[in-house]
Amino acid sequence: MRDFLLIGGGQIVSLIGSALTGFAMGVWVYEQTGSVTRFSLIYISALLPAILISPLAGALTDRWNRGRVIILSDIGAALSTVVIAILLLNNRLEIWHICLLNALNSVFRAFQGPAFSAAITLLVPERHLGRANGMTQTGRAIARLLSPVLAGVLLGTIGLYGIIVIDFATFVMALIPLIFVRIPDVTPDPGRKTGKKSLFHEAMYGWRYITEQSGLFGLLIFFTIANFFAGLAGVLFTPLILSFTSASVLGIILSTGSIGMLAGGLTMSIWGGPKRHIYGIFSSALGIGLCILSAGLHTYAPLFAVAAFFYYFGIPIINSCNHVIFQKKIPPDVQGRAFAMIGAIVGSSLPLAYLVAGPLVDHVFEPLMAPDGLLAGSMGQLIGTGPGRGIGLMFIIMGGFIILATLAAYSFSSLRGIEGDSEK
C-alpha cells in the first residue's frame, strides 16, 4: 500500500487544488458576465471532451506505462493552468479562453482517470482494493467539502491569480511521487489476441470485453441508469431546497451532505467493503433511492439534511465497490480501455440528465403540481402544491425508479453472482 499512498496522496492534493480553481473560476465567470448560460458553458466544456475522447484515451493508456500517462496528464493540466494565470495577469482572460483550456484539461483527465484506476490494480494487493478505492473517494469528498469554503476565503484575500498559483503548486506535489515510484508495466495475456489492427479496434475491444461478460455488462447498465437519476437529483437539489427555504440553509444542507460523503469514504478506507462487493452496491443504491424519494415528500429542512447526509454517505461506498469488481474481473492489460469505456458511458448519462431536467420541471411537473394543476387534488394532498412541489414529485419518481432498478438488478443471477459462486 505504500506506493499507492504516495501516488494517491499526491493526486488527492492535486484534486483539491483543481477543485479550488474550478469553483473560483465559476464565480469569476458569473461575476464578470452575470450569464447563467456562460456559467454553464464552463462546466460543459470541462465534461464533454473527456466523454468523447475516453475510448481512444483508454486504448493508448493500455499501450503505454500507466505512470507515464499520469505524469504527462498532470503536466498537461499544469501547463494549461499556467496559461490561464498568464492571461489573467495580463488582463486578457476571456470566456472562450477558459472554455478552450477547460476542454484541454478534460482531454488530459480522459487519460489520467483510466490510467490511475488501472494503476491501483498494479500497486495494491487484491484484498486491499476496497480500502484503496475508499481512500480515493475520501480524497474527492475532502475536495468537495473544502473547495467552496477555501475558495470563497481565498478569493477575498489572494484573488483568482493566487488560487491558480496554489493549484499549480499542487500539480508539482502530485508529480514528485510519480517520479520516484514506478508503476509496473503490464504484460498482455498471450492467450487473448486483441491485436493491434488500429487504435479504433483496440478502443472497441474494451467495449466488447465488457459486453461479452453478462455480469459486467449488467453492472454497467445498472450503474448508468442509477447515475442518470442521481444526476437529475443532483441538478435539481438546489432549486428544490430554495423553493421553501433560504440560501444559508441550502449551504448548511450541502455541507452536511459533504460531511456524509467524507464519512462514507473514510468508512470504505477502513472497512474495505463487504466480502461480496455487489451487496455493497445494492444496499447503497437502495439507500440512495430512499433518500431521494424521502426528499420529495416534505419541505422540512432538518429532514433534508439527514437525507443529504445518508445520500452522500452511500456514494463513496457504491463507487468504491463498483471499481473493485471491475478491477478484479477485468485483466490488467485491458483495464485502461475498459475503464475509459465505462467512464464514457456512465459519464454520458450526466449531460443527458442536465439536458432534460429543466424542460421536465418547467413544462411538465411544476404545472402538474400548481395549485390548479392536474395532480393538485391527488398528489397535492400528500406533498402539497405550489413552487417546488413539481420537483418534489420528480424526486419521488426518481427515488422509486432507483429502488425498482436495484431490485430488478438483484433478480439477475449473473449480476448477483458476479464475484463467483453465482446464486440461482
From TrEMBL:
Its main location: membrane. It is a multi-pass membrane protein. Residues 1-417 form the Major facilitator superfamily (MFS) profile domain. GO terms for molecular function: transmembrane transporter activity. Keywords: Cell membrane, Membrane, Transmembrane, Transmembrane helix, Transport. The chain crosses the membrane at residues 12-30, 36-57, 69-89, 216-242, 248-271, 278-297, 303-326, 338-357, 391-412. It holds the Pfam family MFS_1. It is found in: Cell membrane. It comes from the Bacteria. The keyword Transmembrane helix applies. One of its GO terms (cellular component) is plasma membrane. This is Major facilitator superfamily transporter.
